[in-house]
Automatic annotation (TrEMBL):
<dbReference type="InterPro" id="IPR000944">
    <property type="entry name" value="Tscrpt_reg_Rrf2"/>
</dbReference>
<dbReference type="Pfam" id="PF02082">
    <property type="entry name" value="Rrf2"/>
</dbReference>
<dbReference type="InterPro" id="IPR036390">
    <property type="entry name" value="WH_DNA-bd_sf"/>
</dbReference>
<protein>
    <submittedName>
        <fullName>Rrf2 family transcriptional regulator</fullName>
    </submittedName>
</protein>
<dbReference type="InterPro" id="IPR036388">
    <property type="entry name" value="WH-like_DNA-bd_sf"/>
</dbReference>
Length: 155
C-alpha cells in the first residue's frame, strides 16, 4: 500500500519557503519536490484558504508564508490537507453481521482511535519553528563535519 506523504512534502516545502527571501514560484517549489507545479498549486491553495500562505501573481510573484513558523503546527498543516488518514491499516467489513468480525472491529477500532488521538495531540505540540531549528542544527553539524574532513584530508 502506498503511503500518503503529502504532510511530509508540504512541511518540506514550507521549510524551504522559510529559508527564501521573497516569493517562491510554484515551478521552483515543484523542482525542489520533484513534482508538477499543478500539484504544488493544488496543495498550496488549501494552505492559502487557511491563511498559512499567500500568493502573488505576475512578475516577481509566487508563494510566501503568511504566518510565523512559531504559530503553525503539524496539526494545522494536517488539517489544511483535509485531515488525511493517519493509519494504513483498518477493519474488515466483509461480513458486518458476523459476531467475530464485530468483536475484532470493536477492539481494533478503539485502539485505532486512541493511536490517532495520540498522534494528533503530538502533531499539535510540534511547531514548524521547531522543525526549522532541527534543520539548522543538522545543517551546522553537516558543515562542521565537512570542514573537519577537509582539514583532515589537507584540502
Amino acid at each position: 500500500m502506498k503511503r500518503d506523504s503529502r504532510l511530509s512534502g508540504v512541511l518540506h516545502v514550507l521549510l524551504h519557503m522559510a529559508e527564501c527571501d521573497g516569493p517562491v514560484t510554484s515551478e521552483t517549489l515543484a523542482q525542489m519536490m520533484r513534482t508538477n507545479p499543478v500539484v504544488i498549486r493544488r496543495v498550496m491553495a488549501g494552505l492559502r484558504a487557511k491563511g498559512y500562505v499567500r500568493s502573488e501573481k505576475g512578475h516577481g510573484g509566487g508563494w510566501t508564508l503568511a504566518r510565523d513558523l512559531e504559530t503553525l503546527t503539524l496539526l494545522d498543516i494536517h488539517r489544511a490537507l483535509g485531515s488525511p488518514a493517519l493509519l494504513a491499516i483498518g477493519n474488515r467489513d466483509d461480513a458486518p453481521e458476523c459476531a467475530v468480525e464485530q468483536a475484532v472491529n470493536a477492539a481494533l477500532g478503539a485502539t485505532f482511535d486512541r493511536v490517532e488521538a495520540l498522534l494528533l495531540a503530538s502533531f499539535g505540540d510540534i511547531t514548524l519553528a521547531s522543525l526549522s531549528e532541527t534543520f539548522h542544527r543538522r545543517l551546522a553539524a553537516c558543515r562542521a563535519a565537512t570542514t573537519a574532513g577537509e582539514r583532515h584530508h589537507g584540502h
